[in-house]
Recover the amino acids of this structure.
């Protein structure tokens, strides 16, 4: 079976506080037990990807498109494709957990 | 009549066209196999009525003497990552449970237009994140294969594990898959079937639940190379609704099939010979070389020097894109909403996403959020994208001395369910041979090679130049004709 190499010795590990901050940025609520479990798992993965630092990329451009293509513009026409056109309010609201008066419903955001 | 579920795509299509049997008889036979295979958990939702409806439409067309289409009368399984109008689409997640799309993905629409019918929506790893189909909210998919002399449940590969099990167990003659970092090829390899990931952009991503958009690519999974060629032709095509869709005609891959490889050079990348790879995998690779030589190809050694960095780069790029793509699941527009008593909007988002995403999905969102966050972006994300350039350049350099590349698909055969519990990193290594072609956007396929000593299937991978699906399919056909692989799992479900 394949095995990963050991994590880079100089690897700066991620702290519990940092994981909590990322979870909050990602809008995922996490309780203490979940954070405790996640910290070593993330450190394991981040320690492993650290090996990318070995590669000298000073003369390399980051990839932006895997298959080079020119950006296309569509015709400047209203509702050019009915599948992505307007006038489909009912379809768009059909799966909303809460929809009222033709709008998405959310909890009160202004006191 | 012999059992229709032993037939593949071509045999069904041609048999229906000739009138050897009706499309309805075919659909009924597969519907019955689906209904009898609940233990495998390959389907999240079965749609026998859809399969019959499509079959009846084909039979009616035939009665009128009309054209039946490339997939006329062939019922297929649809990975539950493709939006299907009026049929629940979940990406095997809780957060999309109950989501009923009001539109049809381009790829599935293309297949229905070509005369295919839908047997149901296939289980997968949640949001296509996984290599064992153990991250689905709707339970594990079991492989129909078992180790000789053992009753232990094996994984069907992932993320297209419902697809691989359905085809291997004869619940469907073919199924759609999607491949972000091996999710068609790895499950095909470990279940003894065939699957191809085409060049990035061949199949439209419109209506496919997004995981990592710069990598995601749909493709067929079927019993043999010819069936894959037929189905890929039906799935592919330019779609203005996908900004990275290839604006070029779809070649006639089925007509172009030719197993004579005279004049072709096949590269053997030395970096793919990794410590810890199963001996049986290395043996199958040697056999593959012999088969391709026998088909007229010249075997040459090549080097893809950045291979070892492809997988870690992938595990920065894919989670980064996933963290961005999955930001849309907020409990407002569709899917689950968890609104704790007295909670505001921000708390609702966090509670919904906590309840709706599984552990592996959360792990990847957190990794992605971290590598994109201020202060870490350049060290992780930009560096990974530079490595991606180097991986793609490796292939470009290789094409100066070869036309195709032969490699193993996976470093090992199917492993037992729970075999990597608590060690996500070890699981990631299953895709070590599949990920480089994904990063470079190249067409790549897995074809069955042989059984190992435990009686489990192993696959061989062929990687081709961009847009050269034909070359990949032809080499696959050459292997298929020489491997004599016809093993099927013994029915226990």
């Amino acid at each position: 079976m394949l095995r990963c190499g050991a994590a880079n010795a100089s690897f700066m590990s991620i702290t519990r506080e940092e994981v909590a901050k990322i979870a909050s940025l990602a809008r995922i609520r996490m309780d203490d037990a979940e954070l405790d479990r996640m910290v070593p798992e993330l450190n394991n993965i981040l320690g492993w990807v650290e090996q990318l630092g070995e590669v000298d990329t000073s003369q390399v451009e980051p990839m932006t498109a895997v298959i080079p293509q020119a950006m296309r513009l569509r015709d400047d026409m209203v509702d050019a494709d009915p599948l992505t056109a307007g006038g489909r309010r009912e379809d768009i609201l059909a799966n909303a957990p809460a929809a009222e008066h033709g709008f998405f419903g959310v909890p009160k955001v202004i006191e | 009549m012999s059992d229709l579920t032993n037939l593949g795509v071509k045999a069904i299509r041609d048999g229906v066209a000739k009138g050897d049997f009706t499309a309805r008889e075919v659909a009924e036979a597969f519907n019955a196999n689906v209904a009898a295979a609940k233990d495998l958990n390959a389907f999240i939702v079965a749609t026998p009525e859809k399969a019959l409806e499509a079959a009846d439409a084909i039979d009616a067309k035939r009665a009128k003497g009309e054209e039946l289409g490339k997939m006329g009368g062939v019922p297929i399984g649809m990975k539950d990552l493709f939006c299907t109008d009026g049929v629940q689409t979940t990406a095997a997640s809780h957060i999309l449970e109950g989501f009923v799309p009001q539109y049809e993905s381009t790829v599935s629409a293309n297949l229905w237009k070509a005369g295919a019918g839908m047997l149901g929506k296939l289980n997968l790893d949640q949001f296509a994140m996984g290599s064992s189909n153990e991250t689905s909210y709707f339970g594990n998919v079991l492989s129909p294969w078992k180790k000789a002399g053992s009753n232990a449940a094996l994984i069907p590969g992932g993320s297209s594990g419902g697809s691989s099990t359905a085809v291997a167990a004869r619940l469907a003659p073919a199924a759609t898959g999607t491949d972000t970092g091996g999710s068609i090829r790895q499950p095909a390899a470990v279940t003894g079937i065939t699957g191809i990931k085409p060049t990035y952009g061949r199949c439209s991503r419109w209506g496919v639940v997004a995981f990592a958009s710069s990598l995601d690519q749909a493709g067929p999974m079927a019993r043999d190379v010819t069936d894959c060629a037929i189905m890929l032709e039906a799935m592919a095509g330019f779609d203005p609704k996908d900004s990275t869709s290839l604006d070029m005609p779809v070649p006639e891959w089925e007509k172009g099939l030719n197993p004579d490889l005279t004049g072709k050079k096949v590269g053997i990348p030395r970096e793919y010979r990794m410590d810890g790879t199963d001996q049986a995998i290395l043996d199958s690779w040697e056999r593959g070389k012999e088969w391709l030589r026998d088909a007229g190809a010249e075997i040459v050694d090549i080097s893809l020097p950045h291979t070892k960095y492809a997988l870690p780069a992938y595990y920065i790029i894919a989670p980064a894109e996933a963290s961005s793509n999955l930001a849309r699941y907020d409990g407002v527009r569709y899917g689950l909403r968890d609104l704790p008593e007295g909670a505001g909007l921000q708390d609702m988002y966090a509670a919904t996403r906590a309840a709706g995403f599984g552990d592996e999905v959360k792990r990847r969102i957190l990794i992605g959020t971290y590598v994109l966050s201020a202060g870490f972006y350049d060290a992780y994300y930009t560096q990974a994208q530079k490595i991606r350039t180097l991986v793609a350049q490796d292939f470009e350099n290789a094409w100066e001395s070869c036309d195709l590349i032969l490699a193993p698909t996976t470093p090992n055969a199917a492993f037992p369910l729970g075999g990597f519990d608590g060690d996500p990193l070890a699981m990631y290594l299953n895709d070590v041979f599949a990920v480089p072609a994904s990063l470079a956007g190249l067409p790549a396929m897995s074809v069955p090679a042989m059984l190992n000593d435990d009686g489990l299937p192993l696959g061989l991978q062929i990687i081709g130049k961009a847009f050269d699906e034909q070359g990949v399919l032809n080499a696959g056909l050459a292997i298929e004709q020489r491997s004599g692989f016809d093993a099927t799992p013994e029915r226990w479900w």
About this structure: Chain A touches chain B through 57 residues (CB under 8 Å).
